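To whoever picks this up:

The parser on our side crashed when reading a file containing two proteins. I've narrowed it down to the boundary between the first structure block and the second sequence. Both blocks are reproduced below exactly, byte for byte. First block:
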Amino acid sequence: MTERAPHATLGLSADEVLTTTQDYPRMITTFKQRERREGIVLKQFSIPTPAEDPAGIVRLFEENISDRTRLILMSHMVFLTGQILPVRDVVAMARKRGIPVIVDGAHAFAHFEFQLADLDCDYYASSLHKWLFAPHGTGLLYVRRDKIAGLWPLMAAPETEDDDIRKFEEIGTHPAANALAVAEALTFHEGIGAHRKQERLIALRDYWADRLLENDRVRLHTSLKPGFACGIANVELEGVDTKSLAEHLWKQHRILVVAITHDQFEGLRVSPSVYTTYQELDRFCDAMEDVLANGLPS
């Protein structure tokens, strides 16, 4: 989709999109292509890891706004670490300056408890195959009502749908199975309950994190304080190569984690889900403690 409202046109040379260095690569690639195609500027800045000062995050966004800033992109939950960012406060700050905010909610939706209306954002997008457990290729797009008419859908829609959110669904013949499966996934999610799901995911995270943190060589790049993260956490073993560690865990123990290497930090992204058992987390901790004691096998 592209925005066409005169007060927020993006596409003029040197117009800026502001985001962090920890946003999702696909989103970064999208705006990098617009840099090459249209001459806009993608401006990125660093945030602390972990970040436990919401006002500080808002201040970083504000300090990096220029008179060329036309759009802010921010993650609701950072995919690298599970960090939850203060969306509502950033949106409020940006709105005073007439700057719309796109929120990437891929890892937030159905992961922890929140109300979309409470964020008061202009745009919110999420894939549904992650924490809602819907099929790949399903997603959610929210557009603030007064912003709908100002967006062109990438798949052409008739003029009669200019003010209709359904214009973003003009993709030709719709596969019925995916939509029906989304309904089943929502039923499953609501059956568990958003709050109970959140509490379960936090309990699983704390179970393995608290145990591993007893070792001095373990570094957690995710806050364990309430409200700053949920089920995802990023952990590093000092002196152990992160990519090699992830390969070892999979090949030797069939434990699936994601190796994260970033300019600011590196570590394993660990993401237990509601069906993960404490016995499985014990296996993970046993394997990690073995590497701490004996190193990776040669």
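<<boundary where parser fails>>
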Amino acid sequence: MEGLFGRLVSELRTLRKGRGLFVGQISDRVGPALREVCGVVEGDGPAEIRRKVAERLEGLASGLPEDLRIALMAAFGIDRDARLPFYQDRVRWAADRIHRDDRTARRRIDEGIDRIAELAASSSGGTDSLVSEASAAGWHTDELKITLVLDQVVPEALEFRRVVAERDHVSELDLALTLTASPEREQPTSIDELGVDVFYGGTLIKKTLESTDRFGLVLALPEELRRDDRHDFALRYRATNGAIQPHFVCVPKHRTDLFELRIRFDLDRLPSHIWRLSEAFQRDVDDPTPTGETLWSNAAGEVYTTFRQLTPGRAYGVRWTTDTEDH
């Protein structure tokens, strides 16, 4: 990881020079380390390279302190208002935005580069496999937004997803959902316990049980996608047995750039504790001793959290417990 971190820092410092991401020979400016963590592949043209690198850097910087994020977005020319021809001009623009002098702005840029290089290197233990997984699937998730509603007789999850085709002729999407049964339950999960409705964006042509509690779904698209096409669809999941375990997580199999989760709890049975899970191992979801950032529901009994650049195979979401479960 230290080797990748060092190479990323060096390449990012080179990329910020001149016009930044809008330099004429962008393919020569983006080195092998950046190509690795940004998913740039052979055959990508200048526009595609700029898009992939800009989206990856913006995603990495989104969780940084505001001054570092502003400085980075200016340094590489990602911020539209900072697309000035010379690096020094962008430094001055950033300095004005964060109310510091030019020298401090340069330090913020250097610090920001170090931070996003650390983030990219730490999540890349999987970058090669991430790129190959996405290519094998033929698509990746650009945005996944889920609302879980728990104040109804039948719990529901509304999913709004945007996918991006990684190749031509993508006509179906393989999806999956795990409906975890209670540990005390003796009977296995039934195929009828998960109701799935398509609101828009395709036709559900397959629903199977891949394991004791994991459902495999296949969504046929209205028309084939070509490489780089984007497609939106919406689904509703209903736990027809009326019960779910006290957690909801996304464990992506393929690349997922953004995951937004909103949960609406029953005001008459609000959790006593709520935790945010990020890049957790799947076994941590059911660990008897929960860990993670504490969240609080608002006056409507709702919590909201967001995740970016998810690592395939890790769990992201929310876990909660009630007073009756604490004793």
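After patching the parser it read the second block fine. The two ends are 43 Å apart (CA to CA). Residues 102-123 form the longest helix (22 residues).
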